[in-house]
Amino acid sequence: MKELIMVGSGGHSKVVNETIAREGNYAVKAVVDDKFEEVVMRNGRLYMPLMTAASLLQLFPEARWIIAVGSNEARRRLKERLPVPQTKYAVIIDPAAVVSPSAVIGFGTVVFANAVIQASAKIGEHVIINTSSIIEHDAFVGSYAHISPQAVLTGAATVLEGAHIGANASIIPGKTVGQWSIIGAGSTVIRSIPGYITAAGSPAQRIHKGGKEIEEHTG
C-alpha cells in the first residue's frame, strides 16, 4: 500500500479520509494543518503544523499527497505554498464512482461515491467531484473547481478554474461557467456565465459581482 500525506483536517477531510480507506490504495502516514501547534503521533499517524510539511518530503520521499480542503481558494493557496511537485499528488476515486476509461483526471483530484464521469470528459487538478454528481461526455472541469453533490454537467458543458457548482445545479450542453464563479444550489444554467460572479435560479441569473476573489485574481 502506498504512503499518503493528507493536507487539511476539517470536515471535508473526513470524507476524503473515508474515501481513501474504501479505495484501498493508500495508507495515510501524516496529516498536515495550520491548526496543529506541534508534531504528535496518534494511531500510527503524524499530525504536523503546515510549516513543517517540507520535512515530510525527506521522511516519506515516495509518498503521494492530497489537499483535503473544501474551499477552492484555499486549495489553490495551499498548492502554491507547499513545496510538493505536482506529479506527487494522488488521484483519489471512490470504488463506488463510475469513471470512463477515456476520461482524463488531473493530479490532486478527488471523486466521491456514486459520482459518474462519462466518456472523454476532462477534469483538471485539485478538483472535487462530489457525491452523486454527474460529468457527462466531453465536459470539461478546470483546476480547483468543486462540483457539489448531485450537480450535473451535461454533454460538452465547461466549468472553468475555481468555479463552484452548487448541489443539484445543472448546466445544459455546451454552456460555460467562468472562472471562480459560483452557481447556487438547484440552479439551471441555460446561458453561459462569465467569471467572478455568483448566479442562481432557474434559469440562473447573476445576483452578485465583485468582492474578495475578484480583487485577488484580477488585482
TrEMBL record:
Residues 4-82 form the PglD N-terminal domain. This is Acetyltransferase. It comes from Bacillus daqingensis.
